[in-house]
Amino acid sequence: MIEAERMKAEQVEQQEAHDTPRIGIVIPSYRVTAHILGVLAAIGPEVARIYVVDDCCPDASGTFVETHTRDPRVRVVRRERNGGVGAATITGYRAALADDCDVIVKIDGDGQMDPRLLPRFVRPILAGQADYTKGNRFFNPEDVRAMPPIRLFGNAALSFMTKLSSGYWTLFDPTNGYTAIHAKVTAQLPLERISTRYFFESDMLFRLNTIRAMVLDIPMAAIYADETSHMRIGKVVPRFLKGHAHNFGKRLIYNYFLRDFSVASAELIAGLALLGFGATFGLWHWLVNATHGVVTTSGTVMLAALPVILGLQLLLSFLGYDIAAVPQQPIHPLLATPGETS
User: Fold this and answer.
1) For residue 96, which of 38, 86, 143, 340 sits 20 to 30 Å off, Cα-Cα?
2) Number of C-alpha atoms within 13 angstroms, CB side, residue 188?
């Protein structure tokens, strides 16, 4: 009788352990030895695995962590060559998937992201309210007021470009690296094709939209200390512009021509055609008449202006459709667990 009760208790414990979501946290590590131990110490007991990804760090961050921490949850993953924050994060994603983690959180190792906020990011995913969550440092007006104007302007510009390229019109602070994602959604992404450097977070949003994943902003405050940024604005901005333009074009083709052809698709085609014709026709006649000193007739002006007006109206209608098409339902409840064949 006692043996039967003991076996039953063990089965209950095993079932509870099985039902408890496994949370893994990925920390790209590159020249963060001054802060990484403090970040690790602040990670709560709700996390089952911690992956410190040494991105071929010249300071040997991985060895430093192994030497100075005894947390059994910590696993150092080393990359043979430096690939950037995106490559390090993807390496951590793969390690977490191999260990059957249910939710994978990514934070930086420089101390700017408070690990104690982790439940905020994980809770909506576990509750079936989101597939991917990301931080938003611009949610609280008090935090925004303390930021330099150039940072506000730059983030507003990047956010608008990301809205266009990703299709997530309700998100802000697109380069925020505090994120969480369900493992089932991670397994659906083409990890080998995602940008591996500073465009990583923006490219992730584009990839998530292609699979119709639901993304949610999580309010947070940034921590600024003595960390050093390795981002060079002069080199990064042209890459961001090129990346967003490329993703914007691909998103339109994927969503409005390959996967579906709707009224919005027709509005986009007609709007671009009318706007292009009106602008080209009007500019050509203006140049010819200006060269010959001839006054442009009202009929010519109307013939140029009417297509431009109609084209703009159609494009605005398409934009309204695109904004309303932001994914509103999580997809991970419908997906198979990574490794399942059906």
Assistant:
1) 38
2) 22
Q: What is the mean pLDDT of residues 189-208?
A: 93
* 213, 293: one domain: no
Tokens of 330: 């999580």
The whole-number pLDDT of residue 15 equals: 47
The more confidently predicted of residues 110 and 94 is 94
Beta strands in the chain (DSSP E): 23-29, 49-54, 74-78, 103-106, 132-136, 179-182, 215-219
152 vs 4, higher pLDDT:
152
Q: Which of 7, 51, 4, 5 is nearest to 29 (CA)?
A: 51
Tell me if 166 sits within 8 A of 108, measured CB to CB.
no
Each as own residue / partner, the long-range contacts of residues 206-212 (CB below 8 Å, 24 or more positions apart, any chain) are 206/165, 206/166, 206/167, 206/247, 206/250, 206/251, 208/131, 208/132, 208/166, 208/168, 209/166, 209/167, 209/168, 209/251, 209/255, 209/327, 210/251, 210/254, 210/255, 211/185, 211/331, 212/327, 212/331
How far, in Å, CA of 315 to CA of 272, rounded?
7
What is the Cα–Cα distance from 166 to 41, expressed in whole angstroms? 35
Q: CB neighbours (10 Å) of residue 191? A: 18
Q: Are residues 126 and 242 in the same domain?
A: yes
In this structure, are 213 and 277 located in the same domain? no
Share of the chain above pLDDT 70, in %: 88
Indicate the range of 6-15, 21-30, 38-47 predicted with least confidence.
Answer: 6-15
Q: How many domains does the chain have?
A: 2
CB 303 within 8 A of CB 279: no
Range of the domain at 314: 262-324
First vs last C-alpha separation in the chain: 40
Res 75 pLDDT > 70:
yes
- Comparing 169 with 155, the larger pLDDT belongs to 169
Q: Are residues 183 and 235 in the same domain?
A: yes
Q: Tokens 């076996």 correspond to what residue?
A: 7
Phi/psi of residue 213, nearest 5 degrees? -80, 145
pLDDT for res 16 = 45
